[in-house]
Design brief:
This protein is of the alpha/beta class. 38% of the residues lie in helices and 21% in strands.
């Protein structure tokens, strides 16, 4: 069993303040991924940066107070710059944790995502429920990355 933190990246307003919206849509994609991972026997927590008033502190606390095996970040294109900042926070706080990036921005950007976001370890393209389970099998030493479809590393 692996322990995975899934994070929905918030957007910025004028690159200075987070946009938080208590009426924001539920991050349904992360919920589907989380449910699939739980059904496969993994432990999952979702941190929704769209409604968090202080995502940096919350993420930092989650990293310090838990032993995550991986952190997944999902972002749309308008939230991608903040996703990179979250990846930086993760790598500064717990450098050994793999950062998996997915969502609309990863899917439309393709492998060029690594030029834009050099701190991510793995990018997931398209639907990720099965892919994330396979990535947990990789982290458990039961599969190699090359055998997993829909990713780049």
């Amino acid at each position: 069993m692996k322990k995975i933190l899934l994070v929905m990246s918030p957007m910025f307003r004028h690159d200075t303040h987070y946009i938080t919206n208590k009426e924001s849509e539920i991050p349904i994609g992360l919920c589907y991924i989380g449910a699939a991972l739980e059904k496969a026997g993994h432990s999952v927590r979702i941190l929704d940066g769209q409604i968090s008033p202080n995502i940096d502190k919350e993420l930092s606390d989650f990293l310090i107070n838990n032993n995550w095996d991986a952190v997944g970040i999902s972002a749309t294109t308008p939230a991608s710059s903040n996703a990179q900042k979250l990846a930086s926070l993760i790598k500064k706080t717990k450098p050994g944790i793999p950062v998996i990036f997915g969502g609309v921005h990863a899917t439309v950007t393709g492998v060029k995502i690594f030029e834009e976001m050099p701190l991510i370890d793995i990018a997931v393209f398209g639907e990720a429920e099965i892919t994330m389970i396979e990535l947990m099998e990789f982290l458990a030493g039961k599969r190699n990355l090359e055998s997993i479809d829909g990713i780049a590393f």
